[in-house]
Amino acid sequence: MTYKVAALYQFVALPDFQRLRDPLRHLCEGLGLKGTLLLAPEGINGTVAGPGAGIDSLVTELREGSLFGGRLDNLELKFSRAATLPFGRMKVRLKKEIVTIGDPSVDPTRAVGTYVAAGAWNDLVDDPEVLLLDTRNRFEVEMGTFENAVDPGLSRFSDFRAYVERDLDPRRHRKVAMFCTGGIRCEKASAFMLSRGFEAVYHLKGGILRYLEEIPESESRWNGACFVFDERVALGHGLVPSMAHHTKGTGR
User: What are the TM regions of this chain, as residue ranges (predicted)?
Assistant: First the structure.
């Protein structure tokens, strides 16, 4: 038996996020799912795994059910498979942010960078005028990254603000393309850069995972493996677990 893994997020106003915690956890447990989901006033984020029918039922409930009342109508989803359950239990946590940048003025529901589909990514990053930024933490970058990408050397995602203010200039860096594991950090990062005067900011829709899922290895600009936040540790092209990496870390 293999298990279905769903990585998901959406930025959306959830003023009742605290009330949603227990019913969401009970729903997931009833479907035989394990993993972690984060709820915050700005939305939902997380990864869960379990039987395929259970994952499908959860997605239907999130999108169409009464629990969220139709608010999760733009859910970013990526599916993969695992030979064993990559999580030990089911957790639903309450947070101030679903991904922490530490600046309450950054609101991806107001303005974010331009989404670039996986199929159009190669053409964008081949442009010599584009500054390609990896917005993930240093240990993730060490496992794998895109050719010619700049590593800001982040210990945590909230360090991204200081990096931009210290090392980047909207007058000099006129085209910036960024990427992260599943796309969520780039929502915050691109919103922050727009607020600081950067005009042409692009980010990979669905993140590295979508790219590895859709782009053949023969056409790929990706080198190495992509760290994921579960017991599979790292994935390669086709979202197949990579056996070459056994180092675990923390972060988002």
Answer: none
Neighbouring C-alpha atoms within 13 Å toward the C-beta of 70: 0
Q: 3-class SS at 49?
A: strand
> Which residues are 78's β-sheet partners?
7
Q: Output the average pLDDT for the chain.
A: 92
Backbone region of residue 97 per phi and psi (left: phi > 0; alpha: psi in -120 to 50; beta: other values): beta
Active site residue 226: no
Q: For residues 130 and 48, what is the distance between their CA atoms, to the nearest angstrom?
A: 35
Domains of the chain: 3-94 (3.30.70.100), 114-241 (3.40.250.10)
Q: How confident is the model at residue 245 (pLDDT cuts 50, 70, 90)?
A: very low
Identify which has the larger pLDDT, 248 or 163: 163
Please give the Cα distance from 213 to 121 (Å, whole number).
Answer: 13
**Residue 11 and residue 43: Cα distance in Å, rounded?**
5
Question: 222 to each of 6, 36, 50, 126, how far by Cα in Å?
Answer: 22, 27, 29, 13
The C-alpha atoms of residue 124 and residue 205 are separated, in whole angstroms, by 13
Checking if the pLDDT of 35 tops 70, the result is: yes
* pLDDT reported for residue 239: 81
Catalytic residue among 28, 180, 186, 226: 180
Poorest-confidence range of 17-21, 120-124, 231-235?
231-235
